[in-house]
Amino acid sequence: MLACVVLATFHWWLGLGVLATWLVVRRPLRDLVRSRVGTFRRATEALRRSWYFAALTWRPGPAKEVRVFGLGDWLIGNHRSLHEEAMGPSWAEARRLNRRIALLGLLVLAAYSASTATLGWAAYHHTISLGTLVVMLTMLPASMQAGGVNATDFALEGMLSSVPDLDALTASLAATEPGGDAPAAAGLPARDVTFAAVSFRYPGTGHDVLSELDLVLEAGRSTAIVGVNGAGKTTLVTLLARLRDPTGGKILIDGRPLTELPAREWQRQVAVVYQDFTRFPLTARENVALDLLGEPVDPDVLARVAGRAGAAGLVAGLADGWDTVLSAEYAGGQDLSGGQWQRVALARALYAVERGARLLVLDEPTAQLDVRAEASFYERFLEITEGVTSVVISHRFSTVRRADRIAVLDGGRITELGAHDELLRADGTYAEMFRLQVARFAEGGRR
Questions:
Q1: What is the mean pLDDT of residues 352-370?
Q2: Going along 274-423, which residue ranges are E strands?
Q3: CA–CA dist 444, 447 (Å, integer)
Q4: Strand ranges for 295-431 from DSSP E
Q5: Averaged over 306-318, what is the pLDDT?
Q6: In the chain, what are the domains?
Q7: How far is residue 266's CA from residue 48's CA, in Å, rounded to a whole number?
Q8: What is the pLDDT of residue 171?
Q9: Residue 286 half-sphere exposure toward CB, CA atoms < 13 A
Q10: What is the pLDDT of residues 167-183, one digit of tens each?
Q11: Taking the model in full, what pTM does it have?
């Protein structure tokens, strides 16, 4: 705009003409930017899948199976076809828009040609000084800012187009948080956690994973949950950690609905070892402590939880001890086996318990341990879960039989509940699953 004002000091109609040209051009250009951004947003899903297939070809994790199974051509083919599917509409639109851009370009070219010719005529007839000519010629390209588009316009339009999504996300987060007078979650549960007729259905599906499930987790005691794959055991953990809310029924903490507690505050009371726990490319100390709640790391607590998780010897064997980066991608770093990582994940949850978490959830805690490590875990199970409300999910009955109570999850409901010996005497689903597993190990031992 300032450049147009400077041009107007030479001839008022020169500055006004350039500004008018950009005012005419600006709106169509903004429409073009908006159209392009909209096209890319609609292609997001296909592009995301395309980039996923491309990443599988170079990431270290899947590299072995990609090579062994000869998946390279298949991955590249999927990447290419999805990329073309995503970008096809954009390319077609670009071809259509090129004609409009060419017409707008001709209009701008005509305006600047006329302006340059005017300055040239004045210079030829010596009606403009050399200094003024230099200033005016400099102002001509500067005046493009009055109506041209650049990367900033695309970035701004992209951000603006995301505002409805942001509003929806903000509204959903606000809906899960109670008001300012919400009770504190610290120290809970003191009595029990109750699932009262809890149902849950994942969005976009037509069936309930959990259906009017009733279960009481008594504070300070261990409860094991068993069931076939897909029974909803991990979904139960997801609801317990309040990563999702039930679609029916309520979860009560000492009689108070979980939804009345601040979500983040409640999650600090829950320590979970997930089946697919995260392997952070950080030091061993950071992987366990995670700078929990912003507090300084307590070395005594760190050593204690490492011992309880069976990770003390592992840490001692690392090149730099607790300061060793657990990733071979970094100089001096060292990767771990699956079983070693599982010990680190268990130590991480136990550190959270030491720092105040009251609910410990172990989802298949021995899935990646070898026979000796698994046996050691069984021996330490009561020590590991002592003093906290614990939930253990496992297919291995040598683990679950040590829990105070065992719940059988079947068809989205708890169908059996009791101690190991009680459930064997009941001769129901638990007893059948136990006998099958014992028989399998017995047959393996005879072979």
A1: 83
A2: 359-363, 389-393, 405-410, 413-418
A3: 5
A4: 359-363, 389-393, 405-410, 413-418
A5: 90
A6: 2-161 (no CATH), 218-245+257-446 (3.40.50.300)
A7: 33
A8: 61
A9: 11
A10: 565 665 555 555 555 56
A11: 0.68
